[in-house]
Amino acid sequence: MTDFLLELRSEEIPARMQEKAREDLARLFAAELDKAGLKAAETISYATPRRLALILKGLPAETAAVSEETKGPRVGAPPQALEGFLRKTGLTADQLVERDGVLFAVVDKPGRATAEVLAAAIPAVIRAFPWPKSMRWGAPSLSTESPRWVRPLQGIVALFGSDVVPCAIAGVTSGAATVGHRFHHPGVITIGSADDYVEKLRACHVIVDGAERRAIIALGAKMAAQKAGLSLVEDEGLLFENAGLTEWPMPLLGRFDEAFLAVPPEVIQLTARVNQKYFVCRDAAGKLANAFVCVANIDAADGGEKIVAGNQKVLAARLSDARFFYETDLKVPLGEQVAKLEKIVFHEKLGTVADKVQRVAKLAEWLAAEKIVPNCDPALARRAAELAKADLVTGMVCEFPELQGLMGGYYAAAQVEAPAVAAAIRDHYKPVGQGDDVPTDPVTVAVALADKLDTLVAFFFADMPPTGSKDPFALRRAALGVLELLTRNGLRLNLWEGITRGLRGMTDLRVSPETSDEALAAHNAAMESVFTSLPTFFADRLKVQQREAGVRHDLIDAVFALGGEDDLVRLLARVKALQAFVGTEDGANLLAGYKRAANILKKEGVATASAPAEAGAQGSDGLHNPGPLLSQGNGDAGFAYDPEPAEAALAAALDAAEPKATAAIAAEQFEDAMAALAILRAPIDAFFDSVTVNDADPVKRAARLGLLARMRDAVHNVADFAKIEG
Amino acid sequence: MSEPLSFQRMILTLHDYWSTRGCLILQPYDMRMGAGTFHPATTLRALGPDSWNAAFVQPCRRPTDGRYGENPNRLQHYYQYQVILKPSPPDLQELYLGSLAAIGIDFTKHDIRFVEDDWESPTLGAWGLGWEVWCDGMEVTQFTYFQQMGGYDCKPVAGELTYGLERLAMYIQNKDSVYDLAFNDAGVTYGDVFLENEREMSKWNFEIADTDALFDLFRKAAAECERSLEAKLPIPAYEQAIEASHIFNLLNARGVISVAERQAYIGRVRDLAKGACAAWIEKKSPEWEAAYPGWTA
Fold first, then answer.
1. Which of B88, B110, B130 sits opposite A138 (nearest CB)?
2. Taking every pair of C-alpha atoms in chain A, what is the biggest distance, in angstroms?
3. Taking burial as the number of CB atoms within 10 A of a residue's CB, which of A104, A105, A704, B224 is the most buried?
4. CB–CB contact B118 A133 (8 Å)
């Protein structure tokens, strides 16, 4: 068994691409070897800024020999058939083997030298490599067919054992030579085999293992901060980025003028992180300190003094720019900045940001006034919404768009807006994606909800819903944001009403007495389409959200199949109760009884009495389709004959359970409704044990089917159990 | 380290370095432009199969970066040092590092990094892959392998180095303000040469420039570009595209171009520049195809 080493050395590979490239190299190589029937006992891959490396351990010297058998004509078949077969296989008649009257061609393929397989695999993998962006270079690029790589390829080390695997691509020929660190060890070094690769390079100031470089940076940065009496603000992204920019990482602590701390800490952190890839530090009190940690790629002769001085100067220039923006922005009241929003296009089909602000302000005010968001002063909600987007035209947000909201919050607070208004401006974009904080402050909730609802209504109005993987306006995230705001805060928003209100904003801006009939018709049609498409979109997002939260998809379907629900909080309460119920023994048994009843009814063609199942059958399991949630059983308590005891018991149980369940549902006590149904479990079991539904007497048969239908319909009051698996 | 190089000596050192490595030393193009890449020695010469190696200083104008001479790091007029090598040589990074060493950067004490930065010029219909080169955290050079120019594939690919001369000089001379840079070795500073220029040009760019006249100039440059294209004169056409691009930058600095219009203006300039590149290729192709059998645009 022999080990294989491959190093593809290039000019600097972007940090963000290295980890995936390392995995791709291993994966593509494994696939090439697999085609030849080879498999490594162990695969290790490395990435640095200047090299991708792969070590495959335990490869055989040759691929296994195979014997391929091809079936030919029968003995005694027409001579043409035999001739054709011989031509195809390239054998003579005496080389064929006969078995059970059939002729076979047997070709023994000897094993191939593994080195040969590897030599062919290297250029194949290079040509097929899935870089996110690749390029041509040098003299071969006279043709656009020249090989592509992420940056110019400089060298290939390919060793099988200690022998070079010969191959050539893009003007580069494989060998055993590579180079060490660009500045510490620029000369050529010769690798003996896979065994000495890592250590030889380490001796030349290259740590090939990215995980090791990350660990060095993490520890070194932490120690540097500690030595200065500070603590490091850890940042996984920066670890990867700096490890991808260095072959010999050296974390160094630098300082900046304390006066810059007057600028909001988020701005300093972002400037340091995004522009310079620096870590920041906190002091003992947990406040941002005037220090940073940069990661150099050399062990400098002067201990890093000049490097630190240089980096301090760069950061100072950046921070002084940031401070200039901050101070300039502070001088202009947000109320004045708002006027400039008229010049910013929100979307070409949807007018300016100023238009949006106007709609959101009305919607936020309404949410507060109607107490949909309780304990919220409508005037504050309106004010916050009016100012919420003003920071988009400030110098700081133009420089760092990711500070939108946050800067507005700072400016509003400095300009003595109410604290609730400043907080709402700051947080109204939240929640941004899953796991983000969900606002709970009433004014913030009103503005955040209004902003997202308006975005959804507007883009659906303009017929631009997300399609497939394309969601350029982040509408799925907006819908999820609405759901989280509603559920986290227990808000009772009737979705129809919310959409209607949102659309009113569009109408106010677009329809006037001068609007032509055609334009008005188009406007109305667009509004109609929002009512068809947006609730379904919400329903889909809700299903995704619940599924990701670990709720069984069949339980979600069971509740959604009821239809007619436009209150998400109520809908989720039902899902939650159902999930708890089916987990109990009563629940599981009731489900079994239900399924048995439903099967019989189906076979006998007894339709469901209530709307919900029909809504489900039509596939419109959205939130619209207004219809009764509560169905009444079609049962008739009286029997026209002398019922068997189990029959009577079931009827009595239904008489008791139905009103209880109905009342509990009306009171939105879904656990109670489930508990009421649970008492049906024993009677239904007993009924199936002792009563024959398919009685010869049509009266008895009808009455018994009627009982089962009552049972089924009672259960449908809480969910469509037919959708539940198990 | 010996006495750091003055601004002019640094330029002379780079000229000498690249001259001995086979580059033509050209002079700045005599038009206002936003970046050295606009110099026809870069843009037009990046097209075609023939080899081309040149180095030159190009004054750059970025009206919106003007700060009335009050910001120590920002200028509306500054210098770029451009090197273009076609095809890109295999040792381009080493050649580049050699030039840094020549102007006094000691790699045992300074941290040089190649940080991903893909270059794209929407107004030139051009893109390339490369890096910004950091020296102790400061970007000192843009290093690009051109992949497309004027919408055409670069065959072969050219390597382009763009040094920010003022930044490098501030670095080498350890100065906090660009205006304190030693321009020569006899006590003349960068501020002596350019401070008043920055004050006046910032005021003109932001406050005085006649926007009606500028709109008119833009239209006239665009029209002249098209007339030149009809006359099969790609070089004059390209000059008018450069002119239109700079006028657009001035209008932008005056704040009279709305967000929606901005894209339309950029698109217009791109069409002019692409038209000039296309005309250049059309004119030169017979010559190129004859010299490089099998080559096509």
1. B88
2. 105
3. A704
4. yes
Q: Are A341 and A390 in contact (CB under 8 A)?
A: yes
Q: E strands of chain B, at which residues?
A: 24-25, 52-61, 77-86, 112-116, 119-121, 126-135, 138-149, 152-153, 159-164
Q: Report the phi/psi class of residue A188: left, alpha or beta, with left for phi > 0 and alpha for psi in -120 to 50.
A: beta
Q: Verify cis geometry, omega within 30 degrees of 0, for the bond prior to A265.
A: no
Q: Which of A16, A136, A312 to mutate to test the interface with B (most CBs of B within 10 A)?
A: A136
d(CA B62, CA B253): 9
Nearest CA in chain A to B129: A135
For the four alpha carbons of A695, A699, A701 and A703, in that order, the dihedral sign comes to negative
Q: Which helix (H) or strand (E) holds B32?
A: none
pLDDT (0 to 100) of residue B106? 94
Interface check A185 vs B, CB under 8 A: no
Enter the tokens of residue A333. Answer: 């009241």
Give dist(CA A266, CA A264) in Å, integer: 6
Is residue A616 over pLDDT 80? no
Tokens matching residue A445 = 């909730």
C-alpha A584/C-alpha A588 separation (Å) is 6
Q: Which of residues 150-189 of B touch A (CB under 8 A)?
A: 153-157, 159, 171, 176
Average model confidence (pLDDT) for chain B? Answer: 94
**Number of other residues whose CB lies within 10 A of the CB of residue A246:** 25
Of A373, A377, A381, give the one whose Cα is nearest residue A569.
Answer: A373
Confirm or reject contact between A145 and chain B (CB < 8 A): no
**Amino acid identity for residue A35 in this structure:** K
Asked if residue A637 lies in contact with residue A651, where contact means CB atoms within 8 angstroms, the answer is yes
Query: What DSSP line would sit under A196-265, residue for residue?
Result: HHHHHHHHTT----HHHHHHHHHHHHHHHHHHTT-EE---HHHHHHHHTS-SS-EEEEEE--GGGGGS-H
CB A306 within 8 A of CB B110: yes
Mean of pLDDT over chain A: 89
Annotate B176-216 with DSSP letters as a single string. SSGGGSBSSSSS-BHHHHHHHHHHHHHHIIIIIS-HHHHHH
Query: Is B261 in the A-facing interface, judged by CB distances under 8 Å?
Result: no
Q: Which residues of chain B have pLDDT under 70?
A: 1-2, 259-260
Fill in the DSSP letter of residue A65.
P
Which amino acid, one-letter code, is at A465? P
pLDDT score of A414: 95
> Which of A12, A18, A181 would best serve as a mutation to test chain B binding (most B beta carbons within 10 A)?
A12
CA–CA gap between residue A287 and residue A7 (Å, rounded): 45
ipTM for the complex? 0.95
> What does the pLDDT average to over A207-217?
98
The C-alpha R_g of chain B, in whole angstroms, comes to 20
